[in-house]
């Protein structure tokens, strides 16, 4: 199929893009196009106007702040994040996770902001942002607001953003303590959306007890899930597979969706197995001291 007819607009500045969003009816933003393109072709969406923001310079690039924060423009390509050495020194889990995101061709076009606004529950990048308590900067022609990633998902594939607003940048505060990390997922084929996936950060004290941890899941709910209850169970404890097994039981309480290929219970069982493996991998990584 092919898309229905629409008016194509290509702003060259952020102000021009925001003015178009404010004045044009039934408009969709075109970022990398890896999600919107198929949706247009299948007529899942049929906008009157498409605003191509690929030539808007203000929402591109990775910027390192003096306070330690990393600000990532929403139009930053996934491959740019994957290849940026300074970024991956501070946030190595991104490179680990990005190898699961589609294929090289899709990462070459796909953007961080596009993944966050499309908000597929099995997408890796929203899971990483949930893991790191990211803040999202939202702009309109007359306003700017910041939304926590934990308040971003309103419902299934519906983000906390209005029709006249644009996601401009993502703010992440990397862990500054020495830590281990792991990202694991299972899919039917490499490049497919995840059946389930787990992202984990873990820091140890001088007695090798868990002093700080963060765990998020993808594919097992309507959006990325931060496992706060499991994190609480892990804190202050020395790692063991029995501890991992106990913490993994938290996943049983999730309302995992079913589809034509997998039941909700299968997704949860898969997530529990991945959770235990990811926790062990992050622990071993922390012991080896390979991250900062």
Q: Can you summarize this structure?
A:
With 292 residues, the protein is of the alpha+beta class. The chain has eleven helices and 14 strands.
Describe what this molecule looks like in 3D.
With 292 residues, this protein is of the alpha+beta class. It folds into three domains: 7-52, Uridine Diphospho-n-acetylenolpyruvylglucosamine Reductase, domain 2, CATH 3.30.43; 57-172, Uridine Diphospho-n-acetylenolpyruvylglucosamine Reductase, domain 3; 180-288, Enolase-like, domain 1. The protein has eleven helices and 14 strands. Strands 4-5-10-6-7 form a five-stranded antiparallel sheet, covered by helices on one side. Strands 11-12-13-14 form a four-stranded antiparallel sheet, sandwiched between helices. Strands 1-3-2 form a three-stranded parallel sheet, covered by helices on one side. The longest helix has 25 residues, at 264-288. The radius of gyration is 19 Å and the shape is globular. The mean pLDDT is 94.
């Amino acid at each position: 199929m092919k898309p229905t007819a629409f008016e194509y607009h290509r702003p060259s500045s952020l102000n021009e893009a925001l003015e178009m969003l404010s004045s044009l009816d039934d408009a969709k933003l075109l970022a990398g196009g890896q999600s919107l393109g198929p949706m247009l072709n299948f007529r899942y969406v049929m906008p009157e106007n498409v605003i191509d923001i690929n030539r808007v310079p203000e929402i591109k690039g990775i910027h390192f702040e003096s306070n330690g924060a990393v600000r990532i423009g929403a139009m930053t390509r996934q491959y740019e994040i994957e290849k940026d050495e300074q970024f991956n020194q501070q946030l190595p889990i991104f490179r680990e996770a990005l190898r699961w995101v589609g294929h090289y061709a899709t990462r070459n076009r796909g953007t961080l902001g596009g993944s966050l606004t499309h908000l597929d529950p099995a997408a890796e990048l929203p899971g990483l942002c949930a893991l790191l308590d990211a803040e999202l900067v939202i702009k309109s022609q007359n306003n700017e607001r910041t939304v926590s990633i934990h308040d971003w998902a309103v419902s299934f594939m519906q983000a906390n953003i209005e029709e006249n607003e644009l996601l401009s940048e993502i703010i992440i505060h990397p862990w500054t303590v020495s830590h281990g990390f792991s990202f694991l997922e299972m899919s039917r084929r490499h490049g497919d959306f995840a059946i389930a996936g787990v992202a984990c950060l873990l820091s140890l004290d001088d007695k090798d007890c868990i002093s700080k941890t963060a765990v998020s899941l993808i594919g097992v709910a309507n959006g990325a899930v931060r496992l706060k209850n499991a994190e609480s169970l892990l804190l202050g404890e020395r790692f063991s597979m029995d501890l991992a097994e106990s913490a993994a039981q938290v996943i049983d309480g999730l309302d995992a969706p079913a589809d034509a290929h997998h039941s909700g219970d299968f997704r949860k069982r898969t997530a529990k197995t991945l959770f235990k493996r990811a926790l062990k991998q992050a622990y071993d990584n922390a012991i080896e001291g390979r991250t900062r």
